[in-house]
Specification:
heterodimer, A: mainly alpha, 86% helix, B: alpha/beta, Rossmann fold, 2 domains, 6-stranded mixed β-sheet, 3-stranded antiparallel β-sheet, 8 helices, 9 strands
Chain lengths: 217, 221
């Protein structure tokens, strides 16, 4: 399964680097969102609301972007071909790997932009990066898995957020707590990070045990 | 007679729309079977269920004694040449074949099969720049790389020029006896390749007969 997943992720990265549709959209969207937030949010409340705003940026960008991994296969009619040669679990793993690589690029560009635009003072930068990365990984795993449920729907772009928001709510609220701790310098919030990790593991197991049923129409 | 493909009382619905309404069909190893019928009769859906892209609503489909929609290893042993070519348009011809061969573990050289289908000089061209006929030729190249035990062909000559049709016919004749085939087509020349055939109408088998009789009944030949 591992080799198949890597092959699929490599193929997706190659396709994305040629078309640049998803990455460009995600980067542009994160820039626009950060700019608007930085103009509209009063300076004195920034330390309190920064973790939530940062999550909103990743949420907006991710919902549109991560679902594209499966949507593109459906729109181009290639998913049926892929199902003929790869196991559904490998396809899901490949899509998660591809979305994780997108996430790392987006995070590497968005985080410095966000910190610069908001002039954010972070007491524990490493703690901050660890917390946002754990949250983002969880978001990628959950959104990649759930996007599979909506690919056959007519209004899939509208349906995905409706399904996704309640499921990722625990990830969002817990990560925001961990990010606040990093900004205030009150130490690693291991309880929050651990909770997100456990939740991600549970969602991953659920996704991989049901993918075969979901993928074959 | 042993069967390599067995379909029993197969029904397939999309929402409320019943496309297959109780199909029964058996194919022994090495046989070439034709599927004919009007547009919307259910030929493509039947092939998609047999190759495991779709799951039956009810009834049973067994390929190599397994249910293909539940078994990825069985799906890998089935080749599907259809009007939908499943190629990644941003990738080149060579990259598409190389991606595919990475899964099926082919021993054939990509250059050799591209040469055979007349696409070697286009190997670095993206599939998005290909014509319909070139894409179909590339799908034939992929089929050759795969060399599957079972081959399902859905309008295989669609988009091909005369030379392409002759090439495909030659390849299928070479595979004859070694590969089990189901050919769904509106082209009587494709049906002539087969030993037996089924006429499908409104999601049901109307006639199971030798290919000659199918040609007489359906095409008046």
């Amino acid at each position: 399964m591992r080799m198949e997943a890597i092959q699929i992720a490599k193929k997706d990265i190659k396709v994305e680097l040629r078309s640049k549709t998803t990455l460009n959209f995600m980067l542009l969207f994160s820039f626009v969102t950060i700019s608007i937030f930085s103009i509209s949010v009063p300076v004195k409340i920034i330390p309190e609301v920064a973790p939530s705003l940062l999550w909103l940026v990743f949420l907006f960008v991710g919902i549109g972007g991560y679902a594209r991994a499966f949507v593109r296969e459906v729109e181009d009619g290639t998913l049926d071909g892929l199902k003929m040669i790869a196991r559904p679990t490998s396809i899901l793993a490949g899509k998660i790997l591809y979305n994780l690589s997108l996430m790392l690029i987006i995070q590497a560009i968005t985080l410095p932009l966000f910190i610069a635009f908001f002039n954010l003072q972070i007491s524990q930068p490493l703690n901050f990066i660890v917390s946002i990365t754990v949250g983002n990984v969880a978001f990628v795993v959950v959104s990649s898995s759930l996007s599979l449920l909506t690919i056959r729907a007519n209004a899939r772009e509208l349906l995905l957020p409706v399904i996704l928001f309640p499921v990722i709510f625990p990830i969002i609220s817990t990560t925001i707590r961990a990010l606040s701790s990093a900004i205030n310098g009150s130490g690693y919030d291991m309880a929050s990070i651990g909770l997100v990790a456990i939740y991600t593991a549970a969602m991953t197991i659920l996704a991989f045990t049901t993918v075969e049923q979901v993928m074959i129409e | 007679m042993p069967e390599i493909i067995g379909v029993r009382n197969l029904k397939k619905k999309f929402g409320r729309n019943a496309v297959l309404r109780g199909i029964n069909l058996t194919v022994p190893p090495g046989e070439k079977v034709a599927l004919v019928g009007a547009n919307g009769a259910g030929k493509t859906t039947l092939l998609r269920v047999i190759c495991g892209q779709l799951r039956p609503t009810s009834g049973e489909v067994r390929v190599l004694d397994m249910e293909p929609w539940k078994n990825a290893a069985i799906r890998k042993r089935i080749g599907f040449l259809s009007h939908n070519t499943y190629f990644y348009r941003e990738l080149t011809a060579e990259e598409n074949l190389s991606f595919f061969s990475g899964f099926v573990g082919s021993k054939d050289s990509i250059d050799e099969v591209l040469e055979l289908v007349g696409l070697k000089r286009f190997k670095s061209m993206r599939v998005s720049a290909f014509s319909r006929g070139m894409e179909q030729r590339l799908a034939i190249a992929r089929m050759l790389i795969h060399s599957p035990e079972i081959l399902l062909l859905d309008e295989p000559t669609s988009g091909l020029d005369r030379e392409g049709r002759e090439l495909l016919r030659e390849i299928l004749e070479k595979m004859s006896g070694k590969v089990t085939m189901i050919i769904a087509s509106h082209n009587p020349d494709d049906i002539e390749l087969c030993e037996r055939g089924y006429i499908i109408s409104d999601g049901k088998i109307k006639l199971d007969a030798p290919a000659k009789e199918i040609l007489e009944t359906y095409y008046g030949r």
